[in-house]
Amino acid sequence: MNSHFDVIVVGAGLSGIGAAYYIQEKCKSKTFTILEAREKMGGTWDLFKYPGLRSDSDMYTFGFPFHPWKDPKAIADGKSILEYIKDTAQTFKIDQKIQYDRRVTAADWNSETKQWSLEVSSATSDEMQMVTCSFLMMCCGYYNYKEAYTPEFKGLEKFTGKVVHPQFWDTELNYTDKEIVIIGSGATAITLVPELSKKAKKVTMLQRSPTYIMNLPSEDIVANFLRKVIPNSWAHHLVRWKNILLSILIYSWSRKAPKSLIKLLKRGIKKALGKKYIEKDFTPKYGPWDQRLCLVPDADFFEAMKAEKAHVITDTIADFHSKGVLTDSGINLNADILITATGLKIQLLGGATVSIDGKTVNTAELLAYRGVMFSGVPNFAVAIGYTNASWTLKCDLNCRYLAKVLNYMDENGKSVVIPQFDETEFETERLLDFDAGYILRAKDVLPKQGSASPWKVHQNYIKDLLALNYGKVNDQYLVYH
User: Nucleotide-binding among the record's keywords (predicted)?
Assistant: First the structure.
């Protein structure tokens, strides 16, 4: 491994491949590499192995704008997404820039040398390597790959069957003709239910609180028609914008007129389930998009329920026993397998310790500048996606913005850029107006946002497109040296 690069990208998932593309295409003089902690590219889509793994966003917005999605299915399975990531990396020769088994454990900025020094470890060696870079781009998402979130279930030790968390799915697990209880109601649980029900004897989703669900076709009729009559790249661009505008419309609807959106969502579920519909199982205690809206392609979740292969019970757990679960209302659920689809655990910056001149950075004290950089941290950027739309949409804008900043620095003879937050001008707010459990549990480590632009983190692609893609990179809060 070389000892110095102009830019180091950490993470070889969707956002890392995207960042590498823009550095390679827009900043041709820059040397860069991607450091990947695991032995394969793909990030989440290589890590997760649970049955039915799929995107909960359409691939026209979840995919890269520079490498059109060609599969007829807009809601894609995990294997197809992983192959798409690999194909993108190979097409643009980004795979040649990836160094595997290189976990960044610490990064320290040296104000004298104007460089980041990274400690890099290997799973196959005790030797710690050192590498430096002028600019550091973190593309490792925001959750812990080694640990998932599992609440303390009193009495779980009594259960004698198999307990599995989807993040660490055992691919050798035989669930044919087994009784399965899934604890949870989020996107993972809703994805697991129809797939497991194909082989299992019975699948029960035990939820403390329901989730809002939207039923959509897995194929985009408009996209498939357009690809027949115009070039694929044009079709991809048009459908991408159609879906971006649709997602903005639905989110805006959920904020301004939630009751009418709830009515529409319930009407779709009632139509799909018919006589199997039970009001309390599909009536969340919160508003739509206070937590993520779950997509169900081709009504597969509801078809499993209508076939009586899958069941939903809204209740809380009283206790466990050797054969399963007892709920607070007295329902006994026998199980051979318990699946704890209870969520993710937030981990920022890939778990690396970040410091400036030896002083550790407290992420909870940072302010997010345009959702790309952090106050007081030199030559540092992140790729973090949206909570209310496709992850890749925001990551793509962040990566393009990074390329603009790098080029501006070269053109103006600058070597350091630091966002500076003015406490006398702005108030501070929580980073995300989002009540998902994994976000609320991480409030002590998540950065904050400011009360106005450019410190306001918008969950809106149009606003971010104007600010990041077409806006300036030399405002008064972005200080160059």
Answer: no
Whether pTM exceeds 0.90: yes
Rounded to whole angstroms, the Cα distance separating 165 from 102 reads 26
Task: Give how far the C-alpha of residue 193 lies from the chain's centroid of Cα atoms, to the nearest Å.
Answer: 21
Q: What is the pLDDT of residues 6-58, one digit of tens each?
A: 999 999 999 999 999 999 999 999 999 999 999 999 999 999 999 999 998 99
**20 neighbors 34 (Cβ within 8 angstroms):** yes
CA distance 366 to 138: 15
Residues 6+ apart with CB under 8 A from 381: 135, 136, 137, 138, 372, 373, 398, 401, 402, 405
Q: Which residue, among 75, 395, 69, has the nearest Cα to 214 in the 3D structure?
A: 75
Which one-letter DSSP state was computed for residue 400?
A: H
Task: Kindly report, residue by residue over 420-451, the tens digit of the pLDDT.
Answer: 999 999 999 988 777 777 777 788 889 999 99
Q: Which domains does the chain have, with CATH numbers?
A: 4-145+345-480 (3.50.50.60), 156-223+257-340 (3.50.50.60)
* 341 in Cβ contact with 222 (< 8 Å): no
Q: What angle do CA 371, 372, 376 make, to 5 degrees?
A: 100
